[in-house]
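Changelog entry: the Class I SAM-dependent methyltransferase record was regenerated in this release. Current contents:
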Amino acid sequence: MSTEVSGTAVDFGAIKAKQRAGWETGDYPRVGNTLQIIAELLVEAADVRAGQTVLDVACGQGNVALAAARRFADATGVDYAVNLLEQGRERAEAEHLPVIFLEGDAEELPVPDSTFDLVGSTVGVMFAPDHQRAADELCRVTKPGGKIALASWTPTGMIGDLFRTVGKWAPPPAGVKPATLWGDEEYLNGLFGDRVEWAGLTKRSFVFRYHSPEHFSEWFRLYYGPITKLAGTLSEADLAAFAADLAEVARKFNQAEDGTVAAYAEYLEAVGIRR
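Regenerated structure tokens:
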């Protein structure tokens, strides 16, 4: 799959293959599990009901799917990183939750049209390189009158700053728009058009809590797959400089005064009705 950008073809298939390799590096759930509260708030904002069908897109280790299953919804998670799916299955088994996990691409979901009462994603689908195709897929699999619920990091928040910092060391592929645009209301409206009526667009903050800025840097270098993969390509001197840059991001947004990190990261919680 490719598209034209300024006369140059963008090979989204090749880009996704590299992304997948990144997410399958490290141990992303060590980071992703800490974000569970975002999913709990999202399914509450979407008013998930017992017995509803819920799809968690780019589910990773299944935060939305597990949150929905706790509310007795029939939950399914989809992701292309098989190691993350396996951890999702382990989490569901440990919590005795009947969640189905499927291997699949957010831009080509392996489910029929108009299947789900709620289609959601927490900081997942935003990383699909072809934003429009991913948005089209979310609409395709949501029942008319059903809901689409998304939590996406904003361009101006801490994670937007983190990604810009990482981009200085590994520039993103040409033709791929920043993932954090999903956290911009105007951009979101452009992606979905009149197919979705947004009932709630709320800016929230997730608090990253670590022992220190250096601990934050170390944790992301060890476990956040794309950052782990990048760190493995750097020389010893560059790795030290990269580690310091990551720590500085945590330090910039930190509001703790006791030496630990309580860094506030803004995200957009969006809940809409599929027309």
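The chain has eleven helices and nine strands.
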